[in-house]
Amino acid sequence: MQHKSSTFLLRCSGVLLMLFLFLTYGVVTGATLALDEALIQRVSMLEHPFLTAMLIALSFIGSTIPVVVLSAVMLLILYLFTKKKRDVIFFVAVSLCSVTLNVLLKSYFERERPSIIEMIEETGFSYPSAHAMAAFTLYGAVTFLLWRHLKKRKSRRFLVGAAASIILLMGFSRIYLGVHYPSDVIGGYLVSGALLTISIFIYQFIEHNIP
């Protein structure tokens, strides 16, 4: 069973990484630009004062200081719920790796942000989206750790549904507000997915081989 799980995780990580590299090639060569701009314009047609206010608030929650505070709260909840230091270490390690990887990738690709619609002002480079990466990593890691301790199917479904909703809304908010191309968000999801699955593989390996 453990062997099957490990193989599945490694395959998922490999597929996600390959998709990220494929998308990155499209971004670097400009192949995705026309579709990116068309999708931003299409999303802008949904503009509504209430939706804008809600997504600005959600986007703010994904900024640096709120994420640090939210991470601290999640760490406390994890420790109180699971009573395992290993879970806390896993969460911290994955979060730090995600932040570091995002900084390195943005510095390497230096993609400028879109200028079609700018509802809020953002600085820094665009690819991949830090908000998308942070959301996928944080909520993905928490979902993995809590899932193991939830026995009821309804509880697990709620956990996955809530995490997926937040992750998708966070990415959508960045496109809606005009500060990221859709490919920035998708790239963030893909590279974070690869990071998270390989991290889970390492976690399970340590759990089963190191007392």
UniProtKB/TrEMBL annotation:
Residues 85-200 form the Phosphatidic acid phosphatase type 2/haloperoxidase domain. The keyword tRNA-binding does not apply. The chain crosses the membrane at residues 12-35, 55-81, 88-109, 129-147, 159-179, 185-206. Keywords: Membrane, Transmembrane, Transmembrane helix. Signal peptide: none annotated. Pfam families: PAP2. SMART domains: acidPPc. CDD domains: PAP2_like_2. InterPro entries: PAP2/HPO (IPR000326), PAP2/HPO_sf (IPR036938). This is Phosphatase PAP2 family protein. It comes from Halalkalibacter oceani.
